[in-house]
Design goal:
6-stranded mixed β-sheet, 10 helices, 2 domains, 6-stranded antiparallel β-sheet, 358 residues, alpha/beta, Glutathione S-transferase Yfyf (Class Pi), Chain A, domain 2, 26% strand, Rossmann fold
Amino acid sequence: MALTGISLADFRNHADTTLRGAKTLNLLVGANGAGKTNVLEALSLLAPGRGLRRASPPTMARQGGTGGFAVGASLAGEGEVRLGTLTRPDAPARRLLSVNGAAASGAQIAEWLSVGWLTPAMDQLFAAPPGERRRYLDRLALALTPGHAVHALRYERALRERNRLLGGDRPPEPGWLNAIEAQMADAGSLLAQGRGALVDALMGEVVRHGEDPFPRPALTYAPGGPVGRDELSQALHDGRTRDRTAGRTLTGPHRDDLDVQYAAKRMPAAASSTGEQKALLVAITLAHAALAAKGRPALLLLDEVAAHLDPARRAALFARLADSGTQVWMTGTELAPFAAVAPDAAVWEIASGAAMPL
């Protein structure tokens, strides 16, 4: 199956926009502020989570609109599937998901579509705090394995409860801590294993392509504690006194990190040039897209990616995308950087929250 079109109602600056006839490569061109990234954001909401901007639902509703918004997309193949997400004016903070008109969870909608993205805001990923890279790892893992979200949510809930107990005025009840730590060990070991498996799979794809001409990243999963269930449970138990002094849990996958090196230079990605960091991010994104294409229908959203690449890397990017098996949506302020692929792509001009096929 493949996504054939998307509709936006009262979403950001789009009052009523429909894009039909999507192809493997899809281009959105227009001036800055026209609403191109808003279309990508709408597509990103067809995945669990808060979308590529991590915005709250009320901020996505169009100013002067109804107070809510709706996004719908069609998948066609052997039959048709309709995916949707919306907020209602009477509950603007609650975003609802649906499959063929029936209410669905984030995990259920993710079983139909894998969504990944690369945006200019991610350019600082390697220099950002570890929490940003953990969030990035989980988003990539979720796009491949929808059940990953369940482990992350269970672990976060148990972690918050343990921290609450440790931060209290009185020592917590050992039996209650035992129960909370058992939940953390169950979910945390699965969460950590999922992250580690993702990094291993990404490295397999990266090594397969080598330097083409994107620099090869060397990815290492750096766990923040034991990965095995029993070992993590024991570490949490043994760390109770220390953690109570600190007022928080100091061991576990909430302290994981992703180490990225520029392999050829043996240099941390954070110490590489801006252009090298962008190229390393593109290499990781392409590796993940190749993995995603092996499962469900997959979307890759690339915001202003061509403008930051030299001609050789731009050509290499387009070649990889054409062979990736992933449906790609790209934005740009002009068509010229996409001249090599535009004849085979679906192209829309976006202006003032409206789309015109080109």
